[in-house]
Amino acid sequence: NLKLRDGEIVIKVDMRGPGSSPCASCKLLRRRCAKECIFAPYFPPDDPHKFAIVHKVFGASNVSKMLQELPVHQRADAVNSLVFEANARVRDPVYGCVGAISYLQNQVTQLQMQLAVAQTEILCIQMQHEPALQSHHEVFELDQDDKAHLLHSNNNSINNCNNNYNLAYAMSSGQLNSNFASPSSIIQMQMQDPLKQESLWT
Amino acid sequence: MSSSYSNYTNSPCAACKFLRRKCTSDCVFAPYFPPEEPLKFANVHRIFGASNVSKILHEVAPHQREDAVNSLAYEAEARLKDPVYGCVGAISVLQREVLRLQRELEETNVDLMRYASCLGGETSAYGGRRG
User: Fold this and answer.
1) Contact between residue A135 and residue B124 where contact means Cβ atoms under 8 Å apart
2) How far apart are CA B127 and CA B120, in angstroms?
3) Whole-angstrom distance, CA of residue A67 vs CA of residue B89
4) Cβ contact, residue pair A97, B87, below 8 Å
5) Share of chain B above pLDDT 90, in %
6) Scanning A53, A191, B55, B63, which has the fewest C-beta atoms within 10 Å of its C-beta?
7) A115-131: buried (b, 16+ CB within 10 Å) or exposed (e) per residue?
8) Using CB atoms, which residue from B56, B101, B111 is nearest to A122?
9) Closest CA to A100 of A8, A195, A5
10) Which has the closest alpha carbon to A32: A20, A41, A50, A42?
């Protein structure tokens, strides 16, 4: 029963604080959102899809266990990576985000090959123009086999960075790698151009 | 003489062993979680849960189920090794590597063009046209 003067407006402010509105998790699970709810800091009520998709793929209790096992300062990143994986799995039920790994590995391999070819071409040109070596024809007469050998040598040295993340080495079963190697099994990624992203979820 | 039993019909799959239930002939897990790989199902169960895995398997075509299981197993293993980022960490590293290689390839191609144009300039100086 507030009497307003001319020009005055009423702005209703909820002074109860953030704890009063159930988080997206508790809304979906239809339970009371306790003050110490483990989901609340990471699943705000205005983004219901975020929890829905994580719940669909991983299940609320699994997510809760995973979060409980982590220190608080790492939970936000963990949630974001789970959301990313869940989204990828819903888009592609067969490969999930493993499809993205395979796709990126193929890109890395192709780029390494292109780089090796370009570097080999430069080497050839450099050697052809080195005056001191002009009398040694066998050095300049690089045929296809020699170039292929140089290419292979280059590939070996620049492939080392891939070893930790190559699915072929990580998987105990060889079947996964052979399936992912074929173009037909590469998933059409719905995610934004990964090459332009600094961070996966900003 | 004892009869030989088929391993498939008498040995429960890793999933049913883990879940302590009877492994029936139409068990959806049996073809993909053999009893000699108990860790595979244990990992997948821990991260995704048996019912979620079952739902995914029912969603995909039968010829794709093996790949689906293998990718789930890979993700589960990656998540257990890295509870914060899981296999998303590998994606991040690979993306950075792609960017780095693209930059290096661009620079190398620029160098190559420079060398190639020097080659073109020198040949014209020595044996090219005059005037």
Assistant:
1) no
2) 11
3) 17
4) yes
5) 78
6) B63
7) bbbbbbbbebbeeeeee
8) B111
9) A195
10) A20
Closest CA to B77 of B32, B51, B31, B39: B39
Average pLDDT over residues A158-175: 39
| The two three-digit tokens of residue A27, written as one number | 């809304």
In this structure, which amino acid lies at residue A194?
A: P
Query: How far, in Å, CA of A90 to CA of A96, rounded?
Result: 7
Q: Scanning every residue of chain B, which has its alpha carbon at the shortest distance from the alpha carbon of A114?
A: B105
- Cα A71 to Cα B107: distance, rounded to the nearest angstrom: 43
pLDDT at residue A66, rounded to an integer: 95
Instruction: Express each pLDDT in B108-118 by its tens digit.
Output: 999 999 888 87
The total number of residues shown for chain B amounts to: 131
pLDDT in tens, A121-143: 999 988 887 765 555 544 455 55
DSSP structure class, residue A10: -
Tokens standing for residue A162: 């891939």
Distance CA B71, CA B73 (A): 5
pLDDT digits (tens, 9 = 90+) for B53-88: 999 999 999 999 999 999 999 999 999 999 999 999
Gap between the Cα atoms of A119 and B64, Å rounded: 41
Amino acid at B65: R
- Give the B window 9-28 contacts with A, CB below 8 Å: none
How much is the ipTM here? 0.80
Question: Residue A23, Cβ neighbours under 10 Å: how many?
Answer: 24
Alpha helices in A58-142 (DSSP H): 60-68, 72-91, 98-128, 137-140
The answer to whether B39 contacts chain A (CB < 8 Å) is: no
- Asked if the Cβ–Cβ distance from A195 to B95 is below 8 Å, we say yes
Domain boundaries, chain B: 9-81, 85-120
DSSP A2: P
Which of A85, A28, A26, A76 is closest to A54 using CA atoms? Answer: A85
Closest CA in chain B for residue A64: B47
